[in-house]
Amino acid sequence: MEGYGPQLPQIPQIPQFPMPPQGQPEQAQQQGFVWVPGATTVGVVFSGGVVLASEKRVTYGYFVTSKGGKKVFKVTDRIGVACAGLVGDMQILAKEMEAQANLYSMDVGRNISVRSASKLMANVLFNRRYAPLITQTIVGGVDEDGPSIYVLDVLGSLIPDKYAVVGSGTEIAIGVIEESYKETMNEKEAKELVTRSIKSAISRDSMSGDGIDFLIITKEGVTEESIKF
User: Exactly one of 40, 41, 76, 135 is catalytic; which is it?
Assistant: First the structure.
């Protein structure tokens, strides 16, 4: 019965494009690897305060773009943040948190607590979830409740802890810290432990290196230190 009745239109063939492997964007697959910024960033609570630290290397793929990148930032006289991820996103997040903490202090009439500052940052990250700031963040400081740190991911998940590591060197550094960490450590012991953990990560992680920036927070205030190697 060919030719009988109305003829249906031909449905055009939809072109088929090869899909990249799951979990890897097409652009990254074309280049042969994923552009993942690396870092080894550590936060540790000791008996009198908090040590935040990160190495200095900034990478783009296999290329070292800077040997002096700063990933540790002072927010208030008693609070700091340490990040791993995109440096520009870290800087935006630190400046946003510093501004909001100052507004809180002027509005309420007292300094913001570490927990409140961490929750504030979590809200900022969650509100940006559709255009996220690509950072893993450790917030640390000292307030009326004593020293504390909080770990945040890209979407603002908030986890309190006594020590934490984020970035590409996490697997190596966290083992060193877990072996020797004690809550009764003093400032010198905490700094030595953090230094040893980051140096261990640097020895195996090609995306970390070139020195360490420290932010040491106590009741007396914030001290910034830096070493190169």
Answer: 40
Q: What's the CA gap between 165 and 202, in Å, rounded?
A: 13
Closest CA to 150 of 122, 141, 142, 159: 159
**166, part of any domain:** yes
The residue segments making up the domain with residue 69 are 39-227
Q: pLDDT tens across 166-175, in order?
A: 999 999 999 9
Let me know if 41 is a catalytic residue. Answer: no
Residues 37, 71 contacting (CB under 8 angstroms): no
Computed from CA positions of residues 105, 49, 157, 73, in that sequence, does the dihedral angle turn out positive or negative? Answer: positive
Q: In this structure, is residue 172 part of a structural domain?
A: yes
The verdict on residue 95 lying in a domain is yes
Based on the structure, what is the number of domains in the chain?
1
Separation between Cα atoms, residue 115 and residue 146, nearest integer Å: 11
- CATH number assigned to the domain comprising residue 94: 3.60.20.10
- Bridge-partner residues for 142, per DSSP? 147
Within-domain flag for 125 = yes
Beta bridge partners of 222: 217
Q: For residue range 69-94, list pLDDT tens digits in order.
A: 999 999 999 999 999 999 999 999 99
| Structure token digits, residue 20 | 């990249």
DSSP secondary structure, 26-95, as one string = HHHHHHTS-------EEEEEETTEEEEEEE--EEETTEEEESS---EEE-SSSEEEEEEE-HHHHHHHHH
